[in-house]
Amino acid sequence: MIRFGARGRRHLWRALLLAGIGGVATASNLAPLPEPLQLADAFALASPELPALRLAAAERDASAASLAEAQALTGFQVTAEGRLQVIEPSSVALNRDRNDSSARVALRKRLYDFGYSDALETAARLAGDSSEWRELAARQTARLKIMRSFFDVVLADLQYARDNEAMAGAFIDADRARDRHELNRISDVELLKLEAAYQEALRLRMESQSLQRLARSRLAIAMGRPGELVANVVPPVPPDLSQPLPEYERLLEDVLVHNPLRRALQADVESARAELEAARNSYGPVVSGEVEAAAYERETNSTHPFTAALVLEIPLFSGGADDAAVASARARLHSSQARLAMHDNKLREQVLDLWLQLDNLRTTLNGLGVRGEYRELYLDRSRALYELEVKTDLGDAMTEISALRLDEARAQFDWQVAHARIQALTGQLLTQEGER
User: Fold this and answer.
1) Which of 19, 73, 306, 399 could form a disulfide with 165 if both were Cys (CB 3.0 to 4.6 A apart)?
2) Which domain holds residue 299?
3) 106: pLDDT strictly greater than 60
4) Rounded Cα–Cα distance for residues 18 and 418 (Å)
5) Is the predicted pLDDT of residue 5 greater than 70, yes or no?
6) Separation of alpha carbons 302 and 299, rounded Å
7) What pTM did the predictor assign?
8) Residues 270, 351 within the same domain
9) Helix (H, G, I), strand (E, B), or coil: what is residue 15?
10) What single string gives the DSSP state of each residue in 86-142?
11) How far is the C-alpha of 309 from the C-alpha of 97, rounded, in Å?
12) Which residues lie across from 288 on neighbouring strands?
């Protein structure tokens, strides 16, 4: 990564400050969340001033400031100087005036520095490219976090429904046991067993109720709207499992070409390589052009109203600073190359994990479909027996249906999140529907 000069650091702090002010100002102008909330609404109504996005934008602005700073190195520099000065003239001076005040305006431009400024500008430009790719990755990460948080709200509601069904069934069993215990039809041990089961079911229901609020709070934070908790959400449409998965090798190749973070790291490597070239020439010769206009109170043979010069500066000894600069830049290059290689290995693991996960989830969802058909038939049988006043496990059957819906939703959401993560890895920003 390129090093920030004093001006670059000032731009970074200014960008961070303005981003923070903008976030405060924009958050209060967001439209209210609808009831019920859909996933598309969660995407569309998320705050554009999420902290991660503000940070990425600030880093992008800082990179632009560093590029401007590098470009200014070869720009025109104009300085003005005024000097109020009193002297004691030399004994041989013809002009005995003691007022030696002067004013001058100088124009200076670096003409040639043997590749230093070009390399520095290239490094800054590539660092800017890296920050833009990182900003895209930050936006995709924010979208994925909203999607996962939205699904967690739906799952929390389904888990509450399951635990509420189980608690209701345990309550009925315990209540009936109390009546039978009064008639001495069951023992104290059996009664306490059912009472304990009811208390455990009640505890799980209370935990699920707390999870509902926690999931909604996390969704609000992911949307950049903390404190705005929605009451109801609309479950998304189940995914289409009919389309085959792409081949792993082709998918990995697509990811390695288009992954935003990888492209950012590639830009970091090229930027570090350009920085190394700049470091090698940082203490080299510099050719500059100078033009100066001046006015003097005391004119002599050596005072000139106008001068033009071609200046050659050749550093003779840097005290080892040039070698240190080259060593530091070379270390940054090796570090950026290592980070790129590590990220490539991580991408290979992620792509294979997601690819296998989608394949396994397809099997899981097919199995849950068969299980669902069985549970529906079992529930119809239990309901018919209940209506005939035959002893049945209708409560357990209804609880199993709620548990099945939770398992189905969890598998469907895992599929959609895995599919969305693959899209993000290939650099395709998620749309409001979470599709390509």
Assistant:
1) 399
2) 75-112+284-317
3) yes
4) 36
5) no
6) 8
7) 0.77
8) yes
9) helix
10) B----TT-S----B--EEEEEEEEEEE-TTHHHHHHHHHHHHHHHHHHHHHHHHHHH
11) 29
12) 110, 311
